[in-house]
Amino acid sequence: MSTPTAPTSQAEGGTNEAGFPPAPPEAHQGAAAEKSECLGTATYSPEDNKLRLYPFARLDAGTYERMKKAGFKWAPRQELFVAPMWTPGRADLLEELCGEIEDEDRSLMERAEERADRFEDYSERRGAEADAARRQVEAITEHIPLGQPILVGHHSERRARKDAERIQNGMRKAVKLWETQDYWSRRAQAAKLHAAYKQAPDVRYRRLKAIEADLRKSQKIVNDAEVFRRLWSAEGLTHDQAVAIANRDHFSVVEAGQPWGTSAYQLLTRAENPRSVADVARLGVEIHTRRIARQGRWIAHYENRIAYERAMLDEGGGLVAESVEMQAGGQVLIRGQWLTIVRVNKKGGKVLSVTTNARFVRVRGIEEVREYKAPTEAQAATVKAAKKLPPLANYPHAGAVEMTKAEWDGTHKDYKGTREAGQGSRYEGGGRRQIAEADLSACGLHRVRVVVRQGVLRSVFITDAKVTQPSAAAAPEAREVIPAPVPAASVAEQTTGEQPASREGVDAIDAMRACLRAGGVQVVAAPQLFPTPEDIARRMVAIAAPELGERVLEPSAGTGVLLRSLPGVLPFAGTKQSACDVVAVEVNRALADTLRNEGLAQRVVCGDFLQCTVEDLGRFDAIIMNPPFERGDDVEHIVHAQQFLAPGGRLVAICAAGPRQRALFSVLGSFDLMPEGSFAGVGTQVPTAMVVIRA
Questions:
Q1: 0.85 cut: is pTM over it?
Q2: Which of 64, 333, 444, 691 shows its CA 20 to 30 Å from the CA of 295?
Q3: How far apart are CA 101 and CA 49, in angstroms?
Q4: Among candidate residues 273, 289, 315, the one where a domain is terminated
Q5: Residues 94 and 116 in one domain
């Protein structure tokens, strides 16, 4: 049988074993007999109500199992065991292992900052790895822009497929690392925000109220246990008396051979082997004595926590609502709005909440109050007048439900109440809460009893109660109205932690993510396409010299090499938009879609350029082109493009260096031979020339 050891955790960056050497097998044997030896430092933090054990060495298998069974978990980065909350059993275990439980010497904010530092370290490492992966992708795509398709049948297809695989793998890696970096950055910020949230006065006050509620529950358990212990301790209990007590006392015991507990009532009344009254009474006294002792520890713990939370709340200045005497008519700042107090709700002389004029949630706890403004005499009078109710009337009228006083009293409070009626009523003219089937508008302002009948609100006439008629109809008086909530001009919200700053490379990652979402590298059949080398493309653009706002035409756009050489178009730019008005024509639909998606031209026409007319495209100040060479297509394309030149326009084109081209273009413009092997880098040794024609 293998001996279990302390847990290891696959933490960020590798497996952490807290630096403890593995314990030899013989060290586990007899370890339980040496519990008097201190195994570490035990601490308790009232800020988060957690117990912690800082072990001096790796725990033996038996002790580790006890810790795990008690609810402790191993935190590898902090090298400690931590329990989610204090319990008497967990405290006893730590006292057994360590002798005593000390106060935690690190505050909640200090631990949050340490945690945030770890997360920021993770984020920086992932960010560095993401930048490295991004730079590798950019190195591959330096001459192959993202989204450029693979040209099937082209000489570059084999190399392009290998590059495409490397590009896509690199993009996936870079995007994933970048997202991991953002994740750890958010975790670091959240750690600090959570610590600040836990220490906020309103949060501490709500936590204080929850602890006080737990204290009341424990005190009730103790009170009930003392009552039952006294009943079971009474002298001369008869069987009937014991059964009556057991009927109310629900303690149970687990007997030998039983997987579940047996109640005191069953012990006394079962047909086979019933227990005696004295035996059951003894069990009842023992169980309730233990229960009182256990709850006594909880009560002491709750009282200590309440004292701590109250001291920390007072040290931080306490609640605004506890430092002022709030009155009806005053204003409170809650969640960015100034609300008017309609009523101050107290219990035992202590203010618990305020009823406001909020539109939806009207009752707000005092912990939500950020600021308070005392009311003026006019404001207090307005609220008092608005709260004044019209007189209650009871009279027979059409549509009323007739009930006796006993029937009215027997109706559940959730299905009855009073509503305003008559002239000047706030429900006059309709509304969701209008009284159904009763027209009381001919009377003066008053109230009537109402009851829910078949899902609608009906007015009520109490038949055996005194009849009180409403006042006669008169011109409705102006009623006081509480002012509506007013948004605060500026509310300084307390924030902790810095917003993650924008990092370099965001646009590049977004471009990679968009490329992956679009399907990555595309596959296109274009065997006759020979992209223009970048140095030649830059030279052609320099000769054409398009100026800001001029119209530029690229009639054989292909993969967009010439377009990327235009001013204003740069790889990974936030806005891939030329400074000129660019029109591109490309016969291959996939290539045209790529040009359109990359935003390399204001207008992309998918079609045969030879079929385009001036009416379709207009005239241009600059035309740059690298037309197809097969069967003299270059001559036909250049001649066709010449008619699109505007007065003063420039046409710069690449063509084959043949006698036909030389004879024609030497007359129309200039014909300059390109150096031998100018297109060797893109897979062809065809002699080429550059043609420049000016309109």
A1: no
A2: 64
A3: 13
A4: 315
A5: no
Asked if the structure places residue 498 within a domain, the reply is no
Last residue of a domain, one of 105, 129, 149: 105
The residue segments making up the domain with residue 618 are 527-694
3-state SS of 155-181? Answer: CCHHHHHHHHHHHHHHHHHHHHHHHHH
Q: What is the token pair recorded at 556? A: 């054989």
* Domain co-membership, 554 together with 680: yes
Number of domains into which the chain is organized: 6
Alpha-carbon gap, residue 233 to 626, rounded angstroms? 108
Q: Side-chain half-sphere of 105: how many Cα atoms within 13 Å?
A: 5
Rounded to a whole number of angstroms, the CA Rg of the chain reads 43
Quick one: average pLDDT of 403-430? 85
Q: Are residues 682 and 545 in the same domain?
A: yes
CB contact at 8 A, 357 and 372: no
Q: In 521-611, which residue ranges form alpha helices assigned H by DSSP?
A: 534-544, 561-564, 589-598
Tens digit of each residue's pLDDT (9 = 90 or more) over 15-61: 333 333 334 344 334 444 444 578 999 999 998 999 999 999 999 99
Residue 7 exposed, middle or buried by CB count within 10 Å (0-12, 13-18, 19+): middle
**Are 558 and 145 a contacting pair, CB within 8 Å?**
no
Gap between the Cα atoms of 134 and 127, Å rounded: 10
User: 180 and 230 in one domain?
Assistant: no
